[in-house]
Amino acid sequence: MSSNPQPQENKAVLVTGAAKRLGREIALEFACQGWDVAVHYSQSESEAQATVAQIHRLGCKAIAFKADLASEAQVNSLFAAVAAKFNNLQCLINNASIFEYDRASSDAPLSSKTLQDHMQVNLAAPILLSRLMFDYQKGQSKKVSERDLSIPSVIQLLDQKLINLNPDYLSYTLSKAALLTSVEMLAVDFAPHLRVIGLAPGITLTSGDQTDAGFTKAHQMTPLGKSSTPSDIAKAAVFLASSHAITGTTLYVDGGQHLLPSSRDVMFKTS
Questions:
Q1: Which of 43, 95, 163, 230 has a 20 to 30 Å separation from 253 between CA atoms?
Q2: Which H helix or E strand runs over 14?
Q3: CA distances from 175 to 169, 220, 259 (A)
């Protein structure tokens, strides 16, 4: 007696900070490629639900999950809740971050609170989630067919300025620099169960007090005459999630912006 084969379950991805901006674009691109999506948000509930609704219209499963990434307990609860709802979690995108201005020599100086806030959300939370993803995948490995050559991934959203340093956004830069270093360390530690990759955009969306005109000018300050778009970053994330020989390295998607040294953050050169 033969039985009908069960339909193959979609791969699933958890995207932090997926309610708005770049995280939303990444979530939607994964859905366009047939992935189910866990949409994390912190405060933007209505935007998160709108992202979920749009993913549903694309024919994929999506659920919104609220969590404060500054809380280790909520980080742990977030991953547990996602793993309970998505049985085929194959990718974690650590996109959510704090991006607040400080500079050691300015009138907005570095403070221990600012530094700790950035380190908690931009570094500690991604590392903790990555470890939870590793534990999950290690537990899943016995259930995977030997013919399934796919290796799940963690993608850490970084920044081109990490190889094009300037003193602006000191706490942000330090937190992302530590996360960049972790890519190689975790890739070695988590193999062969999990790949770890960095993805570094250039100037992609307006930030802070930047005007639309200032952003347009800054976006053109690259060797290619344009930096990254949200679509560029989202497509790169899907590529990395599906490229099973890539781990322990960082992909810079910035129009070559990192090749043009600058003494200030690019948004301050266009005012």
A1: 43
A2: strand 12-15
A3: 10, 27, 22
Could you write out the DSSP letters of every residue in 66-88?
E--TT-HHHHHHHHHHHHHH-TT
In whole angstroms, give the CA distance from residue 177 to residue 175. Answer: 5
Amino acid at 6: Q
Q: What CATH code would you report for 12-139+151-269?
A: 3.40.50.720
Which sign does the torsion angle of CA 10, 11, 12, 18 carry?
Answer: negative
Confidence of residue 140 (pLDDT cuts 50, 70, 90): confident
The residue behind tokens 């993803």 is 133
In sequence order, what are the beta bridge partners of 199? 157, 251
Buried b (16+ CB within 10 A) or exposed e, 63-86: bbbbbebeeeebbeebbebbbeeb
Residue 167 CB burial class (10 angstroms; 0-12, 13-18, ≥19): middle
230 upstream amide cis, omega within 30 of 0: no
62-66 β-sheet, strand order? 62-66, 36-41, 12-15, 89-94, 153-157, 195-201, 250-253
User: Count of alpha carbons within 13 Å of 126, Cβ hemisphere only?
Assistant: 33
Q: What is the pTM of this model?
A: 0.90
Amino acid at 215: F
Burial 214-245, CB ≥16 within 10 A → b, else e: bbebbbebbeeebbbbbebbbbbbbebbeeee
| Among the ranges given (67-81, 148-162, 203-217, 220-234), the one the predictor scored with the smallest mean pLDDT | 203-217
